[in-house]
Design a protein that fits this description.
about 650 residues, alpha+beta, four-stranded antiparallel beta sheet, elongated
């Protein structure tokens, strides 16, 4: 199989790191403590290297040749350096512990912000991005950030601080040898820059291909039954292998380039060590004058040993920085994806009309009240000192009007054309038509999941664009074809439609949907915990719970989008009575394939390619002998 390398013209935004660090600002005091620990640790490391010079020149060499050497000063010096080492170990431990705490708190803040922002995103975003791709942001990308914040950044800062301190210490020993080190480091840095400039783009490609791989796996897990029914296993495996191989190539190139840095630097470090040993030994043996920050002098054996140790301590931090570039670049690639998610435009809501509870006095005037009364009113939030409560409240009726509505999901591909619907309060409007005719799109527009391209949608004569989306959706109940149940008890899933509902109200809603019978047969009845989207229930039972959830919300307008499509004929008869009770007194839109479910509708609208081609009652359409008549008498259901 031919392996395609990812395009390298993608670069990480330079502001990504700065933006990421901004999440650490609330923990500045802990960061200061980390900085102190890093300084202490770096000081202990440098001081131990310089101590070798003192140890050899001041304590070991003077003892050579003595008949009765006094080891007291040597033991005292060793005790001091042991204490310095101990302080460095404590500093290193505290650095790791505190930074881990900061990392977890920062990631919690990021995840919280992501989840809150996700609730504000329009439905369009989730229609155009796979669930696996979104989940990858919460898992893979945040995991890379954890590694970066808890390890790579503090170690990188510690390494940079060590480099500075060691460089000054090397100058204090020998300027000549320091110049040799800088020449060697120059070539090392050129190598790092060449390798890391390539790996950055590969890491971005790695994260993107991993997100696609996760999205595909999520789709395959959800569609296992379909895969087996159509014997699609081999093709699914082949497609997975292609995506997996793309990720392998990107990951291999990214980590291959990044991981090659450390062994190359390790080898160059030894070459540098040998060069320094040769030059330093020659200077020491031949008594060549040595220039240091303290002045001119000779390069002693202690100076040479100390400098060789310092040179290793100078190159090792550079090697560590290079080694951490893997996770830093990978994390920044993940961070750029997370910030791109956070930069997605939230759902726009310019509405200024709210839905409130109200009471009606004997004169017919409305008054806003905090408790649920069964009477709803639209409230205008305007700055008008002369306006009275009666001017600002209008009783909710349930009148829905679509006036010459045009809509397209993507520019140039119109889905709805000149849609006109007038639904009076309490009317039952049925929409029938082939798949793709635009029935569900109308439901999406009424709920303002999408906004119309042209025309108007009015609720009680009010343009829905002027109603707060939250309040508009509170005034419209919807039962979807695809049921989503959540981890929790049956009671909690029903109460999802109205968090303030009592247990008695939830049970009444279940009885209304004829769901009470099977619920009481569950192991713990209404307290039975559902997991995995209610996978232990049949499709019909899950739909009945969805209907009960809509019933407990008690909305004045109800949309039933293929609500009984997943219920068998026997179960449908049982629930039909409950559905009729649920729809009583409400404006109802029924989207259905089964013509038997819409016969008692006040108005039936037949749709085809985004247009309403027929409308009228069941009897009128049968008498007309048009498309509806052909469908009805043909004894088949729309597909």
């Amino acid at each position: 199989m031919t392996e395609k390398r990812p395009q390298m013209n993608r670069k990480i935004d330079k502001t990504t790191l700065v933006r990421l660090i901004s999440y650490l600002k609330p923990y500045w005091f802990l960061l200061v403590l980390v900085g102190v620990c890093i300084i202490v640790n770096a000081f202990a490391s440098v001081r131990s290297s310089l101590f070798l010079q003192e140890l050899i020149d001041n304590y070991i060499l003077p003892l050579l040749g003595q008949e009765n050497p006094d080891f007291g000063p040597l033991i005292k010096a060793l005790s001091v350096i042991a204490s310095i080492y101990a302080i460095g170990i404590v500093g290193s431990f505290l650095q790791q512990y505190i930074m881990q705490t900061i990392s977890q708190k920062s990631l919690k803040d990021i995840r919280d912000r992501m989840f809150v922002h996700m609730q504000d995103l329009p439905i369009k975003y989730f229609d155009t991005h796979s669930h696996g791709e979104v989940m990858s942001l919460y898992t893979n990308d945040t995991d890379t950030l954890d590694n970066m914040l808890s390890q790579s950044l503090p170690q990188g800062f510690s390494s940079l601080l060590s480099i500075i301190m060691v460089f000054i210490s090397m100058l204090s020993v020998s300027v000549t040898l320091t110049v040799v080190v800088l020449i060697c480091v120059f070539f090392i840095l050129k190598l790092i820059n060449k390798v890391t400039s390539k790996s950055a783009g590969y890491f971005v490609a790695q994260q993107d291909s991993l997100a696609k791989l996760n999205g595909y796996v999520e789709e395959m897990v959800n569609g296992q039954k379909v895969i087996k029914v159509f014997n699609h296993e081999e093709q699914a495996v082949e497609d997975f292998k292609k995506l997996n191989n793309t990720w392998r190539v990107n990951a291999g190139l990214a980590n291959g380039h990044a991981n090659s840095v450390y062994p190359m630097m390790f080898a160059l470090g030894y070459v540098q060590y040998i060069i320094l040993a040769i030059i330093g030994g020659y200077m020491s043996i031949h008594g060549i004058t040595n220039l240091s920050l303290s002045g001119l002098g000779l390069l002693t054996l202690g100076n040479l040993v100390s400098f060789l140790t310092l040179s290793r301590n100078f190159v090792n931090p550079i090697s560590q920085v290079a080694a951490q570039l893997n996770s830093i670049v990978l994390a920044l690639a993940g961070a750029s994806r997370i910030f791109a998610f956070l930069d997605e435009q939230p759902e726009v809501d310019n509405g200024y009309i709210n839905l409130v509870n109200a009471t009606e006095d004997e004169q017919g005037f409305l008054h806003e009240v905090p408790e649920h009364t069964g009477i709803w009113a639209w409230k205008w939030n305007v700055n008008d000192d002369d306006a009275t409560e009666d001017d600002l409240l209008v009783k909710l009726q349930g009148l829905i009007l679509l006036d010459y509505v045009d809509f397209s999901y993507t520019e140039g591909r119109q889905v709805l054309t000149d849609i006109n619907i007038y639904a009076e309060p309490g009317q039952k409007i049925a929409l029938v038509g082939a798949t793709g005719a635009g029935k569900t799109t109308i439901a999406n527009l009424i709920n303002r999941f999408y906004d119309v391209d042209d025309g108007k949608i009015r609720y009680d004569g009010i343009n829905v664009n002027n109603i707060k989306k939250k309040d508009l959706r509170n005034a419209i109940g919807i039962v979807l074809q695809e049921v989503n149940l959540f981890t929790g008890t049956v009671m909690e899933n029903i109460r999802y439609g109205n968090p303030q509902a009592t247990d008695e109200q939830c049970i009444a809603a279940a009885k209304l949907a004829n769901a009470d019978g099977f619920i009481r047969m569950l192991p713990k009845g209404y307290d039975t915990v559902l997991e995995g989207d209610g996978s232990g229930l049949s499709q019909g039972q899950r739909q009945l719970l969805s209907i009960a959830r809509a019933a407990v919300s008690d909305p004045p307008v109800m949309i039933l989008d293929e609500a009984t499509s997943s219920i068998d004929t026997h179960t449908e008869k049982l629930v039909q009575d409950g559905m009729d009770k649920l729809m009583a007194g409400r404006t109802v839109f029924v989207i259905a394939h089964r013509l038997s479910t819409v016969q008692n509708s006040d108005v039936i609208m037949v749709m085809d390619h985004g247009k309403i081609i027929e409308r009228g009652s069941h009897e009128a359409l049968i008498e007309k002998k048009g498309v509806y008549y052909q469908l009805y008498t043909g004894a088949f259901e729309l597909e």
